[in-house]
Write a structure and sequence with these properties.
Helices cover 48% and strands 12% of the residues. By secondary structure, it is α/β, with parallel strands linked by helices. It has three domains: 45 residues, no CATH class; 204 residues, P-loop containing nucleotide triphosphate hydrolases (Rossmann fold), CATH 3.40.50.300; 47 residues, no CATH class. Strands 3-2-4-1-5-6-7 form a seven-stranded parallel beta sheet, with helices on both faces. Strand 6, helix 9 and strand 7 form a beta-alpha-beta unit. Helix 2 crosses helix 3, helix 2 packs antiparallel against helix 6 and helix 3 crosses helix 6. The longest helix has 37 residues.
Length: 313
């Protein structure tokens, strides 16, 4: 007979290091409702041991999932437990997503020291979905040594992932026409470590030189490391984990600033998510009113905006 797991039981299982309890807690959080709030309150308030949270971002096709697969292997060789949160693009029509990261990282399916969960983006902005942000609390509560968060393929203005992780790694690929555009603005400014993947390509050295030149205006101590990798062969992965660890150590100097930025992002992201859910129902009603000719989009927008006017006492 299958054991029914409620939120309280899921928490007890998480405290015991039971991955089934973590999986069930994630499902509760994804489904929303009172169970979600109960579990997130527990996870946020729990005194957790230090965890290294690494964000992996970059354009689609850069080889992020393959690189993460090799990073997991390297961290496991170091004796560390690893949790992976991967965000895949959702269809704008069906809402479904092909969770390909589970396929690419299937080598770790039988390893009890690794837990991988994929999430659809659900029209998220910034490359990381609301569900992924919430589940990050559960991963920390579970006590992984390393948590890797993979964003969907991003452009230069999709940089929110940096607010939720300790070290952001930007994965670039030589030979793509938009590579340097990505490096020049937005994403470049939030990356702590740069990885040139597929560095066996002839254009790799040119890309590295261009990156070095673009960092020339920064003081030497503030220039981010640039690591060359060939993820499919595991080349450069040890160097990348070392660069991530060194960068995380340096980031501790700015821990207070980073924590305040993270809290700001957490609150604003949660508020916007809740408002969006509420307003979707209100907008449906307004659409019918506009369609019937009883009002205009401008009047409807003004009424909806007035719904959220409030003051803090």
């Amino acid at each position: 007979m299958t054991r029914i797991i409620d939120p309280q039981t899921a928490i007890a299982m998480i405290e015991q290091g039971n991955r089934r309890g973590l999986a069930k807690a994630i499902t509760f959080v994804e489904n929303g409702g009172a169970e979600k709030e109960f579990l997130l309150e527990y996870a946020y308030r729990k005194k957790c041991r230090p965890t290294l949270v690494v964000g992996i971002t970059g354009a689609g096709g850069a080889g992020k999932s393959t690189l993460i697969d090799k990073l997991v292997t390297e961290y496991r060789a170091q004796g560390k437990t690893v949790g992976v949160i991967a965000v895949d693009p959702s269809s704008p029509y069906s809402g479904g997503a092909f969770l390909g990261d589970r396929v690419r990282m299937s080598n770790h399916n039988t390893d009890n020291g690794v837990f991988i969960r994929s999430f659809g983006s659900r029209n998220c902005l910034g490359g990381i979905s609301e569900a992924a942000k919430n589940v990050l609390y559960l991963y920390k509560a579970f006590g992984f040594d390393v948590i890797i968060v993979e964003s969907i393929g991003v452009g230069q203005d999709e940089t929110e992932i940096s607010k939720f992780v300790d070290v952001t790694t930007l994965v670039l690929v030589p030979g793509l026409g938009d590579t340097m555009q990505m490096a020049k603005a937005g994403v470049r400014e939030i990356a702590d470590v740069f990885t040139i993947n597929k560095s066996d390509k002839p254009e790799a050295e040119i890309l590295k030189e261009q990156l070095v030149i673009s960092f020339g205006i920064l003081p030497p101590e503030l220039r981010p490391p640039i690591i060359s990798t060939v993820a499919s062969e595991g080349v450069g992965v040890k160097e990348l984990t070392a660069a991530i660890s060194e960068t995380a150590e340096k980031q501790k100097e700015f821990a207070d600033v980073k924590r305040r930025e993270r809290i700001w992002a957490e609150v604003s992201s949660s508020v916007l998510y809740l408002l969006q859910k509420k307003f979707q129902e209100l907008i449906k009603d307004e659409v019918e009113e506009i369609y019937a000719g009883k009002t205009t989009p401008f009047e409807a927008s003004k009424r909806l905006a007035e719904c959220i006017e409030c003051r803090k006492d």
